[in-house]
Amino acid sequence: MRTAELVIELSTSISAATWSHNKVVEPPAGVPWPGCLLSESPNNRLMLPGWIVAILVATTLFGLTLHLLFSSMRWRLKSFRDLTISNIKEEIRSIQPTTQMLIRDSVLFYIPILAMLVASVVVVSTVHNSLLVNITCPIVLALYSFCSARFIIHTRETIGQPACLQPVEELSLSILSRHR
Length: 180
Known about the structure:
Blueprint: H1 2-22, E1 24-25, E2 37-38, H2 44-72, H3 85-93, H4 97-126, H5 132-160, H6 173-178
Antiparallel strand pairs: 1-2
Helix pairs in contact: 1-2, 2-4, 4-5
């Protein structure tokens, strides 16, 4: 899945770079910014595939995380009436701390990333010659950076915590000798 995303985004980037190379003009005299400017804005054919693939990959990874959640739960529920908040909390508490952290961060990070990616698709497809188009990409990059940094910090904190082991009953030699 990540390979397909890489190939599609790489091909989109190469076509956008080729298009940009043909549309570059030198800045007019008196403009203090170094570098070059584009003579026209890129069209949607160059930008939409990258945003749509990013949405599909993020949604697929989120779905796999939810699958991990449901496969990790023991689901001791006998009927639909057993599906209560307290039972769900008990099921979630029985999951390993690392899995809990992965699921919590996935849910918390998927929502803003999906919202920003969808907003980027809407902005790119509706607003053409506006500065708003140039704002969405840096916001998405900053959001990815923030979320991955928080994910790394939470992973280190979770791994550094002592394991929540159930207390083991002490066994005396007399109990062990009876079972032989």
